[in-house]
Design a protein that fits this description.
Strand order of the largest sheet: 6-7-8-3-9-10
Distance between the termini: 50 Å
Helix content: 25-40%
Order of helices and strands: EEEHEEHEHHHEHEHEEHH
Keywords: ATP-binding, Nucleotide-binding, Transport
Bound molecules: adenosine-5'-triphosphate
CATH architecture: 3-Layer(aba) Sandwich
Organism: Streptomyces albiaxialis
Structural class: alpha/beta
Largest sheet: 6 strands, mixed
CATH topology: Rossmann fold
Number of helices: 9
CATH superfamily: P-loop containing nucleotide triphosphate hydrolases
Number of domains: 1
Pfam family, one: ABC_tran
Number of strands: 10
Oligomer: single chain
GO molecular function: ATP binding
Radius of gyration: 19 Å
Strand content: 15-25%
Protein name: ABC transporter ATP-binding protein
Shape: globular
Length: 253
């Protein structure tokens, strides 16, 4: 569903936010990306979403090479194939929960009643049911808890039948119990709907829900663990943070 092949992104000459990163994310797989601040996680998400273009290398979504697409085709692919969930949810307060979920379909111009997959309202209701909130359709987002709002954001990301879900710190603002709900939902969408999920997180407890966790250091992939436990993740993160020996850093003044 998502393939990065030797992707690099240089913002300034000689400074690479992403450095020769390759990974392959098939349908139904849940991947967590970890790394300290500035290691390139957001840049990786932006390249995967087609919001940023790599300096070199190839990004493929559902087999389509993004570099070959004209802007309109890229916008269409992003809209139809990629769902995005961030910490700041961007739910519109004036719309009901159902209207928020249906919004990507309405913006894409889905005709009421005639669109493939059903009318926007019907598809939004199905997406809301899939995230466990079928009876909150008519509420405004402000009446929902943080976790429920995050689930609405997941429903909105998946309503187009995207297939690839990119999540940027989706549990960063949630308490552990609510975070658990949202992570269980991401796991469920991968297992039962076959969505490929790529989640950036700083939290080892969140990464534990993924099939695989990869670690970025200064733009490079420096580690990869299959279904790791929290302790293993912390060890890997600790290894990454171990400061270089003093003689390599120069004298401490
Ligand atoms: N638009 C930009 N212009 C110049 N440099 C950038 C730009 N965006 C990111 N960078 C640099 O690229 C590197 C990677 O940044 P990125 O935001 O991808 O890291 P991150 O791992 O997501 O960090 P955080 O966890 O703090 O969000 C950093 O050194 C950052 O300063």
């Amino acid at each position: 569903m998502l393939g990065l092949d030797r992707v690099s992104r240089e913002y300034r000459r000689g400074v690479r936010a992403l450095d020769d990163v390759s990974l392959h994310l098939p349908p139904g797989r849940f991947l967590a990306v970890m790394g300290r601040s500035g290691s390139g996680k957001s840049t990786m998400l932006a390249c995967a979403a087609g919001l940023d273009r790599p300096t070199s290398g190839t990004v493929r979504v559902g087999g389509t090479d993004l570099s070959g697409l004209k802007p309109e085709a890229l916008t269409r692919l992003r809209r139809d194939r990629v769902g995005f969930v961030s910490q700041d949810l961007n739910l519109l307060p004036a719309l009901t929960v159902l209207e928020n979920v249906a919004l990507p379909l309405l913006l894409a111009g889905a005709a009421p009643g005639a669109a493939p997959g059903g009318a926007p309202e019907e598809r939004a209701r199905r997406a809301l049911a899939a995230v466990g909130l079928p009876d909150r359709a008519d509420d405004r987002p402000a009446r929902l808890s943080g976790g429920q709002r995050q689930r609405v954001a997941v429903a909105r990301a998946l309503v187009t039948g995207a297939g690839l879900l990119l999540a940027d710190e989706p549990t960063g603002a949630l308490d552990p119990v609510t975070a658990h709900e949202v992570l269980a939902l991401l796991r469920h969408t991968a297992d039962t709907e076959g969505h490929a999920v790529l989640m950036v997180t700083h939290d080892p407890a969140a990464a534990r829900w993924a099939d695989q966790t990869v670690f970025l250091t200064d733009g490079r992939l420096t580690g990869c663990l299959e279904r790791p436990g929290e302790a293993e993740i912390r060890r890997e993160l600790g290894r990454e943070r171990t400061p270089a020996p003093v003689r390599e850093r120069g004298p401490v003044l």
